[in-house]
Write a structure and sequence with these properties.
The structure holds 2 protein chains of 2 kinds. Chain A is an alpha/beta fold. Chain A has 9 helices and 10 strands. In chain B, strands 4-5-6-1-7-8-10-9 form an 8-stranded mixed beta sheet, with helices on both faces. In chain B, strands 2-3 form a two-stranded antiparallel sheet. In chain B, β2 and β3 form a beta hairpin. The chains are: A alpha/beta, B alpha/beta. At the A-B interface, α6, α7 and α9 of A face α7, α8 and α9 of B.
Chain lengths: 318, 304
């Protein structure tokens, strides 16, 4: 069942203030569509500045989109406001990257976690809120003895668990996770990834998982959208994309992953980018693409039937 | 408070040594102490020595120490965004290093600065020398920092998480640049990192740190093929790249004890599946040894 569906989203940021006259609009997200199903994990990957976080913020209605539509459980929510929008927010919650910056240092843990309840469940008494916080913290692997402490008394991994509890407390159907483990050490990262997996199964949650780390994505994602310069350049089932990337950019991203054992050194010839930057017209990947041809200058960037935005996709490997 | 205890490392010309560990294990502090950095911020040596060509860095004069810093041993820091001064041009920042260490006039220094930028793969060097750090991307800034480290032709480079702040594709290029320079100039490179992928890619030797101690060290193949210490094994095992998709990742239970709360014996004992009674007494760095591969563990090879 489709939970969150976005179609043809566009967003440009304009240079504001005193630079407005000389500034150029920056198109952060161009014609981006995806469909997130109940209980699945869709990962959006790409380098910094590719538009992955902006796409998530647009889909959550945290930012207004310039064009395109967003629907929630089959219902158009693109222009929802007021109580309807508040209601939507209880279904879609967000977990942020930096567990140090995303918790108010002057609020006790239980107050931070309970904030969503004050808005979405005004019917609960303080005692009931505290009970619910304790229960949610326990599900996230923290015991309730920490409820009256402050964020600085917790480690990075514990704070990320608190961040997850704060999102879960209003019982959402979708979690948007923006680089949820990239600030954590590997051993802590493993714990948090396992926790996310457990919670997803027990609550049938859908995850929109934003990450630049392909090892993490290959571990957790069911489907993947690869973004470059504001556009989705390839999307499909995670296993297919990791085994058979069709877009040269996807291939370059995969080949740039660090090896996992020193005996893989020099074993394969990576297909890396040959240049830097991106093109404003035609295929944006042209300046870096080792396979570019003249016709790429006129390419409109649309995905083909196989979910790849390239005129000359890479051959299927066995 | 002791933040690093009994760490010994040997860095040789032409070799890459990886110092691996999680945040707070003391790896950056160890790397910075090699150049006696941080002593004005209260970092103090309680015991031990640092020797460069058999000369102790604690016995030489401040002036001699300044020629060692940057001249013999240079450093590349993690944050390319903050390691450059935003109000000076790239050229003047590289020229500063050159004029501190080499006896060159202004024009020769400028020439050397642009040669250095070309060495690190920046073709329009003259243009970049005039620019300020804010005009450069993260990857380009990291190249500038590497060029600055190379400015006085050092024998050793200490690189503290040199690619952590960069995108993967940029990371790959900075890695090959560092390895290239290291081979061409026969540098001894100390790579401080949390990333076993980087170690697999770059290092000849590895030292693994946990809670202020080196728990295992040896040639890179030995460490990857036969990790001896239970911590090394666990840390390598919880990487998502070696896991099966969809399966739960193996985890290390408990948390790293903070400095000041280390146990008297093995620092890993509380979290270790193999811990026995004899782990509560201090364990020697080479309690287990196989050639150059040593481990601070009394129970290597035992199963749970």
């Amino acid at each position: 069942m489709s939970m969150l569906k976005v179609n043809g989203l566009n967003k440009a940021f304009s240079a504001g203030g005193m630079f407005k006259a000389i500034g150029k609009d920056k198109r952060a997200v161009i014609d981006t569509s995806f469909d997130l199903m109940a209980g699945e994990t869709l990962a959006i990957v790409g380098e910094s500045g590719s538009g992955k976080s902006t796409t998530a913020r647009l889909a959550m209605r945290l930012l207004p989109s310039d064009s395109g539509s967003i629907s929630w459980a089959g219902e158009d929510v693109t222009t929802l406001s007021g109580r309807g929008l508040r209601n939507l927010r209880s279904h879609i919650q967000m977990v942020f990257q930096d567990p140090y910056a995303s918790l108010n240092p002057r609020m006790k843990i239980w107050e931070s976690v309970a904030e969503g309840l004050r808005v979405h469940r005004p019917d609960l008494s303080k005692q009931q809120r505290r009970e619910k916080v304790a229960e949610t913290l326990q599900q996230c692997g923290l015991d309730d003895s920490g409820m009256d402490r402050y964020p600085h008394q917790f480690s990075g991994g514990q704070r990320q668990r608190i961040g997850i509890a704060r999102a879960l407390i209003v019982e959402p159907k979708v979690l948007v996770l923006d680089e949820p483990v990239s600030a954590l050490d590997v051993s802590v990262q493993a714990q948090v990834l396992n926790l996310l997996k457990d919670i997803q199964q027990s609550r049938n949650l859908a995850y929109l998982f934003i990450s630049h780390d392909l090892s993490v994505v290959s571990h957790i994602a069911d489907r993947v959208s690869v973004m470059f310069a504001g556009r989705v350049v390839e999307q499909g089932r995670a296993a297919d994309i990791f085994e058979n990337p069709a877009h040269p950019y996807t291939r370059a991203l995969l080949d740039a992953r660090p090896i996992s054992h020193p005996n893989e050194r020099g074993k394969s010839e990576p297909v890396l980018a040959i240049g830097e930057g991106m093109s404003d017209s035609g295929c944006a990947y042209q300046p870096r693409c080792p396979f570019k041809k003249d016709s790429c200058a006129d390419f409109d960037g649309a995905l083909n039937a196989q979910g790849c935005a390239c005129l000359y996709p890479l051959p299927h490997q066995q | 408070m002791n933040a690093v205890a009994g760490v010994s490392l040997k860095l040789e010309p032409g070799r890459v040594l990886g110092l691996v560990g999680e945040s707070g294990c003391g790896k950056s502090l160890t790397a910075q102490s090699i150049l006696r950095l941080g002593e004005y911020q209260g970092v103090e040596k309680s015991s031990g020595d640092i020797r460069l060509d058999d000369k102790s860095l604690f016995e030489i004069s401040d002036k001699a120490l300044r020629t060692v810093r940057g001249g013999r041993i240079a450093m590349v820091f993690q944050e390319p965004m903050t390691a450059l001064n935003p109000v000076f041009s790239i050229g003047s920042q590289i020229a500063e290093v050159i004029s501190l260490h080499l006896n060159l006039d202004r024009q020769q220094a400028c020439q050397r600065a642009s040669d250095l930028l070309r060495d690190v793969g920046m073709q329009d060097a003259e243009q970049i020398l005039k620019q300020y750090p804010d005009a450069l991307s993260g990857g380009m800034r990291q190249r500038v920092l590497i060029a600055m480290a190379m400015a006085a032709d050092p024998d050793y480079i200490i690189a503290d998480e040199p690619t952590t702040a960069l995108d993967v594709s940029v990371q790959k290029r900075i890695i090959s640049l560092l390895l290239d320079l290291q081979k061409k100039r026969n540098l001894g490179l100390l790579l401080v990192t949390h990333d076993f992928g980087l170690v697999a890619e770059m290092c000849d030797d590895v030292a693994v740190m946990y809670a202020g101690q080196i728990v295992e060290s040896g040639p890179v193949m030995d460490i990857f093929n036969r990790p001896a210490h239970p911590y090394t094994k666990a840390l390598m095992g919880c990487r998502p790249e070696v896991s099966t998709a969809g399966k739960a990742l193996p985890v290390i239970s408990g948390q790293v004890p903070p400095p000041g709360h280390w146990p008297a014996g093995c620092h890993f004992a509380q979290r270790c599946p193999l811990a026995k009674d004899n782990c509560s007494a201090p364990v020697a760095a080479d309690a287990w040894q196989d050639g150059e591969h040593i481990s601070r563990c009394l129970h290597v090879g035992e199963s749970v």
